[in-house]
Amino acid sequence: MSSRTAVVTGGASGIGEAISRRLAADGAMVAILDIDGSAAEALASSIELSGGKAIGLTADVTDRAAIDAGLNEARTRLGRPTILVNSAGLSIDGPFLEITAETWNRSLAINLTGTFDSCQAVLPDMIEEGWGRIVNISSSSIHSGAPGLAGYVAAKSGVVGLTKVLALEFAKFGITVNTVPPGFIDTPMLRNTVEKGFIDLDQQTARTPVGRIGQPEDVAAVCAFLTSEEAGYVTGQSIGVNGGRNT
Ligand code: NAP
After folding, report:
1. Could you say which architecture CATH assigns to the domain 5-185+214-231?
2. Which of 132, 124, 115 lies closest to 180 in space, CA to CA?
3. What pLDDT does residue 196 have?
4. CB 188 less than 6 A from any atom of ligand 1
């Protein structure tokens, strides 16, 4: 993967952080795009201290101009991106009857339109290169539903549909597009959802066949495969990382 430039949105925390670290450890040059630019830069420095190549960039995925600016900087500093992992996401809903139009629209903007825009911004590089790998992080809540997360689950379900369409449209260019819907993964987002009372972690652990909550590295390992050379015949797929739930 040493000649590849990878872009990871939401790459400074949780699952995105583990993916950024893993792709860099596997030899990719990683552009970490996150709304929290200082966290992205701090992670890039930490990756470089361990011998990897990474840059941290500020970009809100709800702002197409910011995505384009971040990608331009990534192209200049690291070369044309041919790997994209969309991990930026936020669960911000609440009880259904209390969801405002503003919250609903923001949830769709971050969790669905941000993925659309990031894919559209990077795909021309991949077409030019005749090679590309996209992994969209969705959520196992698309299988189970999740009370209090209507906008989030609707958006993540849209990500699965978007993934399938892109897989079909771009296969002829050597580009694969897959989605990973994680189960419960120990990250700041999950801890926040538990604190709000939307998830009972003990109950969910008891319902997980492997008997534990997932770690961000569990998701990163699957992304490492899906973005590798040898995954070229895997496209349009949804690869769950959920400890055996939703089988
Ligand atoms: P996380 O630790 O909160 O990481 C998400 C990262 O995305 C954070 O750095 C966050 O920045 C950033 N971000 C938020 N809004 C953004 C925006 N508009 N533009 C750019 N970056 C933005 O969460 P995580 O658990 O790792 O989640 C990663 C992905 O996995 C998300 O798509 C999530 O929906 C999905 N997922 C997670 C779980 C789980 O159990 N953890 C399960 C299913 C799916 P701030 O911290 O500054 O907001």
Report:
1. 3-Layer(aba) Sandwich (3.40)
2. 115
3. 82
4. yes
